[in-house]
Give the backbone structure.
Amino acid sequence: MFSTEEIGIDLGTANILIYSKSKGIVLNEPGVVAIDINTKKVVAVGAEAKEMIGKTPRNIVPIRPLKEGVIADYDVTAQMLKELLKRVSKKMGLSVRKPTVIVCTPTGSTAVERRAIHNAIASYGAKNIHIIEEPVAAAIGSDLPVDEPIANVIVDIGGGTAEVGIISFGGVVSSNSVRIGGDKLDEEIVQYVRKTYNIMIGERTAESVKMEIGYAYEDHEEQEMDIRGRDMVTGLPKTITISSQEIYSAIKESLERILEAIRATLETCPPELSGDIVDHGIVLTGGGALLKGMKDWLASEIDVPVHIAPNPLEAVAIGTGKAIKMISKLQKAAK
Ligand code: ADP
Ligand code: MG
């Protein structure tokens, strides 16, 4: 059967999710592509490619084409999207060859970047393509009443960026984006271990340390974890035990910068909407919302209620898909 499908794509810097109106989340893969630099061929996409990071022979290079929150490599992004759409099409057993696609872009992305995203999807054969702003998608996916004239505050902490958006009446009233997210925390952990222990660890190891014993505030019950890396003096593998306090000290500054971005956005909130924020608080989405203690730490710093979205990792994708029926309204609000 040849039915057209409506799908939403969350083109995240760490994870790409595809949501179908009829089936919900149909794909959730890391945004990683492994390329053979000799043949320029794509060898792997998604989880399989992420698994290769830090482990491949020289000719195979895993790339995260969206790492900095924008399309750094157009060709690779287009190939990745095509492959992922193909997988979805197979899995769903119906044609998504000419889908209506809604995709979200970070606030602050340029017209050129949006064009690049548009073209990458168009090259797959999508019939209608709409681009909406990420905070709006995150808010819809968190079940916030975005089309009402009240302030909905979203803080989306992804891999490459943290985005803060105040949404009212279907549009973004005020927003801020900093290029600090989970990746930056991982980098800080790599640097800390290198400086303190003279040991090089990989970014995947750093990420798992962050997820297991990373905390957003100092006053927590200390935990420890064994990690393996390469001793930079002897060149040999070495295992060390690292504590959650050490990890906290490594990521603290980056967390402060996310906090500053939230503060700065709240300060620009129109006074008529400020009261809503005190009443309703802010909603956290993105993988960064899952850092231990994030919610309580932010609540104590900014003094408004903080909630975590029901599905922080899926909120943007769900919201993008659900935005289809609101799109004309949203476009009116954007004008
Ligand atoms: P993006 O939208 O940029 O693709 P996501 O919202 O998918 O990003 O979030 C990915 C980021 O969230 C990664 O940096 C990942 O390490 C981080 N993350 C995921 N789960 C956790 C967790 N439990 N604790 C801390 N960070 C997490
Ligand atoms: Mg995201």
The longest strand covers residues 171-178.
